[in-house]
Write a structure and sequence with these properties.
This protein is of the alpha+beta class. It is built from 4 helices and 8 strands. This is Craniofacial development protein 2-like protein.
Length: 230
Amino acid sequence: MRTLQQKGKFENVIQEMDRIKLNILGLDVVKWKGAGSMKLGSKTLIYSEGHTHRKGVAILFDVTTAKSLGSWCPISDRVVVAKLVAKPFKSRNYSNQVGLYAPTSYSEDVEEKKFYEEIKKAKGYLKSQNIIIVMGDFNAKVGYERVEDVGPSGIGTVNARGSRLIEWCQVNDFTITNTWYQNHPRRQWTWKSPRYRLPGADCDSDHIPIKCKFQMILKKLRQRLILNFK
């Protein structure tokens, strides 16, 4: 979801987060300088530099989820990553959130290349065996044609940024979850023009929030003891 520079604007965002019952909310174009964390009412916000007043990303956690926040890292003004510790495995991080804001289709190719290098850096900060959830605005259109296990139910025709995203998902074994289910076309758009009335967030944003509900079942793996008798 996109938000604005003024901190007071977050009041509506928090209300909307409670209304649609979200534990974690990814935000982009936050436009705050520097990087840090802060309390916003009962919520905890981590944010990564938006020094140009054009970019900046953040992740907002509710009071329960914030208790599981182990550590976080501001990668750049387009990428931020957080580690959530799953109980009872306190020594390991199992669910990791990567918030991002990709360059638009009008950006130079070198900026897009830098963006994917920053995502790679974020992945390097995490453990490969852990669950990784990437959320944010990729500024890409992946189209409606099925591409293996990446996702088959987008809209329109894939564009150059969409092809790059699909390729990245294939290489890194990711699925674009919001394109995996059949929905009415008006519920497939993630951006809305002020001229059109589409289902969206009741706050100052031109992006439609994507809500994802998932469940993790963690199991302890028992080591097998092999005895070799001679």
